[in-house]
Design goal:
Layout lengths: L67 H25 L11 E4 L9 E4 L8 E8 L4 H11 L5 E5 L6 E7 L1
Antiparallel strand pairs: 1-2, 1-3, 3-5, 4-5
Length: 175
């Protein structure tokens, strides 16, 4: 059987009047390069810049992970440091260097080189000593006893502190 010839004014047997592709099946009239690579490159598996890989050839990117552990660790660390600073400040508010005449003191340590004196309310059961005099300066043991004898006749204990930018002498008696 033979195909009827095209109507006048049309090429080939396309009823819609559009030209038919040349033999070989490529509608754009170009032949792919040898080897069947549609991107026209020899060797290599990558498309040229601007070409898109086929859908589904790459996995989707992982969503960004937020490390809650790091955030919690930073917050906890900051709270601990802040608590240490505040605690140190509060505990230093009742140190011997804040004592004044008439204050009562408590000895927090049995060490003679560092008795850890702190100011307490005179009504507190921990109150052991009363401050009779506070004298600025740096003193030896002998000088401290002499200064306290001159400042308060009934003193029993002399406490000197040097360093921390504050040198002073406390003349104490039993509460």
């Amino acid at each position: 059987m033979t195909t009827p010839p095209p109507p006048p004014g049309q090429q080939g047997g396309n009823p819609y009047g559009q030209p038919q592709p040349p033999q070989g099946g490529n509608p754009y009239g170009q032949q792919p390069p040898q080897g069947g690579n549609p991107f026209g490159q020899q060797g290599g598996a990558y498309p040229p810049p601007g070409a898109f890989p086929p859908p589904g050839s790459f996995p989707p990117p992982a969503p960004p992970r937020r490390s809650k552990g790091k955030v919690v660790l930073i917050v906890v660390g900051a709270v601990v440091v802040l608590a240490g600073i505040v605690g140190s400040y509060i505990s230093s508010q009742d140190d011997a260097d804040t004592a004044a005449v008439g204050d009562c003191m408590h000895r927090g340590s049995s060490s003679n080189s560092n008795p850890d004196l702190e100011v307490v309310a005179c009504t507190d059961s921990k109150a052991q000593y009363k401050v009779l005099a506070k004298i600025s300066g740096e003193f030896s043991k002998t000088e401290a006893d002499t200064k306290c004898t001159a400042a308060a006749k009934d003193f029993r204990y002399a406490y000197t502190e040097t360093g921390k930018g504050k040198n002073f002498l406390l003349c104490l008696t039993d509460k």
